Amino acid sequence: MDDRQLPQQQGNPFQQAHTQAFPPEAFPQHAPQQQQTPQPAAPPRRRRTGLAAAVVATSLLVGGGAGIGGAAWWDATQDGSSSASGTSPVATSTVSQSQAPAAEGSVESVAQQVLPSVVKIDVTGQQGSGSGSGIILTADGTILTNNHVVELAAEGGGSIEVSFDDGTSAEAEILGTDPLTDTAVIQASDVSGLTPATIGKSANLGVGEGVVAIGSPFGLDATVTSGIVSALDRPVNVGSDDQGNSTTYPAIQTDAAINPGNSGGPLVDMTGAVVGINSSIRTAASQSPYGQSESGSIGLGFAIPIDEVMPIVDQMAAGETPTHARLGIRVGDDESGARITEVTEGSTAAEAGIEAGDVITSIDDRRITGADSLVATIRSYRPGDQVEVTWTRGGESQSANVTLDSDATED
């Protein structure tokens, strides 16, 4: 038992940005495990060819149909023949326009740099199929993505196919998963010469800074969107397992459009360096003309900061079991912070004199506003890190420097 264990939340507004495909007549978004999950539509069979089910799938299908019809009509009237009325074709002239190089620091230049390092991931398993995105870490095919992208295959009997920017594809296997941080590392088979992404520093981000998100929303691979950093250290809880262990992280909030299928793809700064893993969205549900629930990007996307998870990524890539920092407590929400409901005997919290009923108000200089805030903050540290914990008891404030435990010591 520790600060990772929280009661299962109901009505969670955060949705993992993952496309899970089922019958094509269904359009709702993918929902986290342990919640009722509407059934999205089937994914595209190949890169750049189809649409997967989704948040704005209805409008995509209607718009796509109109576009196809328009293109067919345009081709039919541009075949060089005269019109039915016998009038002569109108003479036109064209202007030769050379392709100017992308300006350094522009969205265009960032896209050109990062696209070769982003992949589309198609997953099938006993419970269905889905798609997401991934970030190339090594030239021989080590790829970072979200746990919820590959968990269908992790359940057994599944398969993973990775599609690269040059149009080629390869099978992949899971090297490691970490549900607590919603990360996973997979290995593509028999590949070489790939372009690894440049890993940046999420700690250097500032609110208002420009960022670019790249991925495969609704199976539309190589999709680029841009925006700004809307907030930092935003506690995001996308669900809990049967033991109450929550998937909670101190997210980068962005208004760059993130939709189902973007999960696992990179959020990059304007130098093209990866600063986050696009993972979840907050949605506002609405009803489609067909009576089906729809939701999509409303400018509230969330990415896992790269700094916090790279040590865990390194563990998974090496075949090790991921470890996490812990205080050794159970907590709930309080108007002043995170109220402790239980302290594990022998834990670092117990040794510091923290007791059930105390309310933790800050960790170092980071204010704690509730249970998710505390969990997300502790997750940003590593086992063995020393932090200052401040709490209140009976209206009086107390503090202590503690060395964080590791969940590797749990039985």
CATH architecture of the largest domain: Beta Barrel
Number of strands: 24
Succession of helices and strands: EEHHEEEHEEEEEEEEEEEHEEEHEEHEEE
Radius of gyration, whole Å: 24 Å
Mean of pLDDT: 79
Distance between the termini: 10 Å
Percent of residues in helical segments?
10-25%
Uncertain segments of ≥5 residues (pLDDT<50)? 1-10, 21-87, 287-292
Count of all domains: 2
Largest sheet: number of strands, sense, barrel closure = 6 strands, antiparallel, barrel
Shape assignment: globular
Structural summary, described in words:
This protein has 411 residues and is an alpha+beta fold. The chain folds into two domains: 8-76 and 103-322, Beta Barrel (Thrombin, subunit H), CATH 2.40.10.120; 325-409, Roll (Pdz3 Domain). Helices cover 15% and strands 35% of the residues. The chain contains six helices and 24 strands. Strands 9-10-11-16-13-12 form a six-stranded antiparallel beta barrel. A six-stranded antiparallel barrel has the order 3-4-5-8-7-6. Strands 18, 19, 20, 21, 22 and 23 form a six-stranded antiparallel beta sheet that branches. A hairpin with a 4-residue loop joins strand 12 (266-269) and strand 13 (274-282). The radius of gyration is 24 Å and the shape is globular. The N and C termini lie close together (10 Å). Mean pLDDT is 79; it is low at 1-10, 21-87 and 287-292.
Secondary-structure topology with pairs:
Layout: E1 14-16, E2 19-21, H1 57-76, H2 107-114, E3 118-125, E4 128-136, E5 142-145, H3 147-154, E6 159-163, E7 169-178, E8 183-188, E9 210-215, E10 223-240, E11 246-254, E12 266-269, E13 274-282, E14 286-287, E15 293-294, E16 301-305, H4 306-317, E17 325-326, E18 329-334, E19 337-343, H5 348-351, E20 359-363, E21 366-367, H6 371-379, E22 386-393, E23 396-403, E24 405-406
